[in-house]
Amino acid sequence: MKIEPDECSIDDLARRPGQSVPWTGVRNYQARNFMRDAMRPGDGVLYYHSSCAEPGIAGLAEVASAPYPDATQFDPASPYFDAKATPEAPRWVHVDVRFVRKTRLLTLAELRAEPRLATMELLRKGSRLSITPVSAAEWAVVTQLLDR
DNA sequence: GCCAACGTTGGC
DNA sequence: GCCAACGTTGGC
User: Which residue has the higher pLDDT, A136 or A79?
Assistant: First the structure.
């Protein structure tokens, strides 16, 4: 899962140990669908800092809830307000995430240099999705690199 | 700030 | 359903 560290860095997340943090604000259907259809409580999350000086994986988190409606879509004062969404027919759902641990920064350059990650969705050319699936094999490679 | 890549919108 | 215009993402 990508996040701009200005919004909620791994250090910000670490200040809320054991707490569920609602992953609000996703307004892309594919990313939503990954949360809605492919994530289950307990699933591992690679916590990726984007749009910053040193983009890369900065820690691990885990999925901490089933998918449920994003409250910000109903709030006219929110930048994520969606006039076409109603509580009866919510358009946007998300999961909660929970801090697991901070890691060293595994930079985007390092990730790109690893041939075993060549087909990872996050690294695909032109990939902009803020939430992408990680295969078990990719997870194993990444966690190995993180502990190096 | 630039720009490639991609998603969304809306007229037709 | 097509596709041009526009908006967003995100590395550099």
Answer: A136
